[in-house]
Amino acid sequence: MSETADAPPHAALAQRSVSAILHNQRANGAIVASPDFSQYQFCWLRDGSFSAFALDVASEYDAAARYHQWVHESIQRIRGLIEDAILRRTSGAGSGEVEMPPARFTLDGAVVVDGWPNFQIDGYGTWLWSLGRHLDVAPESKLSPDWLDSIDRVARYLETFAVSPCFDVWEESGTAVHTSTLASVYAGLVSAAALLDDMRFLETAASVKVTLEGSARRLGYFNKSSESDDVDASVLWLDSPFRAVSSSDPWFEKTVSLIEDRLVLDGGLRRYPTDTYFGGGAWPVLTATLGWHYATIGKTTDARRCLDWVAGHFDREGRLGEQFGGEQRDRQHFDEWTDRWGPPAADLTWSHAMYVILENELARSDGTSAASDSRLAESNASAPEARP
């Protein structure tokens, strides 16, 4: 989809996405995953932290700060739960999934025990990464002393469970160690080390990197998980934004090639080859992530193709859904999920966030983004890597 009379220019569309994120943020700072899908009426640390980064990209620093304050307050409410989980692991006791810190919260910061897979550590790593980026780029931003306890508590939680089996970013496969989860843990620990001035977290990050590279050394690419040698589009986060590997790493380059070969659907990007959720359609979140990678390595034509694909899936009301094309690809599973939950989310805050991020990346490369500034560019370029 090009910038014609039928579609707003990308900058204007990105501003609509920024407005959508702000509309989906509550006064207390929580960001709802989707305003129109019954199962997503919560704030996930994963989705919210990417959305907060998009707000920083768009110079909505106060809104991003409110989100991080909300996470801090939510962490404080479950500090006993986090400490109990750490104690159970370090003492050799079992780690019941229901008893783990939650992957999502109600919008007022409460924990819900309803059978949803709780043991997902990627959101905690993603929050620490997002907070670190916020403090890097927001003008006059300062690390509140009140936040130090939450940062330390989450970092120790990640340190304890860094390479443990848990549910993945798609809330599946709870018995595996997942590559994209390891990437988020790596980035969170690197961020915590800087925020707390505690280099021990860099040591754990380095060990996570060794684990990441283990399977890649065997296979020649970064696979989905310890239980699957297939690819998963979320593995793209190893480069952008988590900087667990270099974009020129030959194993990562091979991974990108496999993702392009196996997961492209009508120009968008699917999650993984055997995905059946609502038919396994293409996700704006992942298509924009691939575009982010292309922009990082200077493949601007390919990055713009991804941006155009996402732009082409806004509806007339300015909504941007979770996924597209599943009904054509796998009608049986699409209908099964629709019968269970209704149609897929028509407006996903995380989709808006990734569109904003990619639009900004490309606009910065052109020098045309009003949202970008030298702080963000320097922060992107200097994101640290721990070395084993």
Keywords summarizing the entry:
2% strand; Glycosyltransferase; 4 strands; mainly alpha; disordered N terminus; two-stranded antiparallel ribbon; 388 residues; single chain
The side-by-side strand order for the widest beta sheet comes to 1-2
Summarize the main sheet: 2 strands, antiparallel
- As residue ranges, the low-confidence spans are 1-7, 369-374, 381-388
Count of domain modules: 1
Strand content: under 5%
- The share of residues in helices is 40-55%
**CATH fold field value:** Glycosyltransferase
Q: What is the CA-CA span between the terminal residues? A: 44 Å
Form type? globular
What's the count of strands? 4
CATH class: Mainly Alpha
- Taking all Cα atoms into account, the compactness measure Rg is 19 Å
Secondary-structure-based class equals mainly alpha
The tally of helices reads: 15
- CATH 2nd-level architecture: Alpha/alpha barrel
- Average pLDDT, to the nearest integer? 92
Q: What is the N-to-C succession of helices and strands? A: HEHHHEHHHHHEEHHHHHH
Summarize it.
The chain is mostly helical and 388 residues long. It has helices at 10-23, 45-57, 61-77, 79-90, 122-137, 147-161, 179-196, 200-219, 250-263, 284-296, 300-311, 326-329, 331-341, 349-366, 374-381, and strands at residues 43-44, 104-105, 264-265, 268-269. The strands form two sheets. A two-stranded antiparallel sheet has the order 1-2. A two-stranded antiparallel ribbon has the order 3-4.
What topology emerges from the helices and strands here?
Elements: H1 10-23, E1 43-44, H2 45-57, H3 61-77, H4 79-90, E2 104-105, H5 122-137, H6 147-161, H7 179-196, H8 200-219, H9 250-263, E3 264-265, E4 268-269, H10 284-296, H11 300-311, H12 326-329, H13 331-341, H14 349-366, H15 374-381
Helix pairs in contact: 1-14, 2-3, 2-5, 2-14, 3-6, 4-6, 5-7, 6-7, 7-8, 10-11, 10-14, 11-14
